[in-house]
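User: My collaborator sent over this chain with a note saying "see what the structure looks like." That's all I know about it. Can you take a look?
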Amino acid sequence: MKERNSTQSHSFKSFNVLIITTLFFAAFLPFACKPISEMEAQGAPDESNYDGGKKDKDKSKDKSKDKQGEQSSEATSANAADKTGSDADNRKGAHGHDQPKTAAKWYITMHGEPSGNTVHALSGEGEMLGNILEPIAKSAGGDAKGVRGMLHTGEHGILLVSASMDNTRLLRYGAPTSDGTLPFESVFASKELSDPNLVHSYALAVGADGTVYASNQDTNTVTAYEGIGTAHPGQPVPVPAEIVGLGIPVGTIVPRAQVSPQGITEIRGIAIGADGLLYVCDRGASQVVVFDPKTGLRKSVLADATNGLKHPIQLLFAPDGFTVYLTDNGVPAIFRINVKTGDIILFANTATGCPPLPSSLALDNEHLYVGDRKKKQIIRFKIANGECDKKPFADSLPDAPEFMIPSTPMPPASKVQPTTTP
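Assistant: Without extra context I'll predict from the sequence alone. Here is the result:
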């Protein structure tokens, strides 16, 4: 009897232990498994289904990219609404200190997004000081996009190429405000304002009478406009009588090669000399061609492949109006030409400091500044002897430099020393 009771008691105890154990695991198991569930929800790879885990990862990345894109879009809109509008505004310069935009000595345009949608200020030491353009209301066409050439309009500010192919415009900005920003004033010219050849413009030039000239990459033409201070600023000028028979649109003074054998095959930089003639870089023909802007007729070829040219890009006259500097990114090289005598000098090649992809040109009294599109730098040379500085004038630019001008116009030619052969 005692043995039976003992056996029953033992069985009852075992049953109780089993019940307690079962209840314990039932209560504890969900908590014990929770971290695993959370890991799976966070996209942890499942080794038994690697492809499925990879897809989950990809989806997670796509969502992250979408979120980042939305944040970037919101940030861009915020910058556009902000007058200062640039993440470079508070950036320390190369020399370890900050300067305000009012310290700008140079204005520079660049290629690409978003740096290519504004004008940047540089100090006299090559420090980035930030964006200087005031935003443009959508009702006026919106902000500049794909900015390229610039020129001074006397004491009134600058004209700027906004080269966007679907909305090419020449934009007019006023003199700098107290914080160094350039206020938007008006659309000086555009394709929509009855100028069909103003498409994907590149460079600007201005004549002694104030006439403004633009080179247009997609139509390979030069168009001309009445200058600021005239009765109709920005209005396309009539086609010269000498070429009106070509049937070209109003405003066109240099046609493309498909229209006239005197025309341009692949246009880039332009400049007006002291002789009043228009000098045009024809990249496709390896030439710098000279035109009379009053007649639209070709006068001569200043330089071509026989002088070592391959792809002439930009040209800039010294203040004397007869010495012109030329960048060629096909050689690559920088040439200096005297348009009076026709003498052509190799100012610099890659062995003497010319960048592999030279672009922008700018001058002060002592130096020639050349943009390096490959390394995103500005290189500086002494005018007197062609010697290149050991270090870049401006380094680590946000994008490839396109055009560069001083923040104020160059001094009169009488204050500039004559150049000598390097």
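A starting point for your reply to your collaborator: Confidence is low (pLDDT under 50) at residues 1-97, 412-422.
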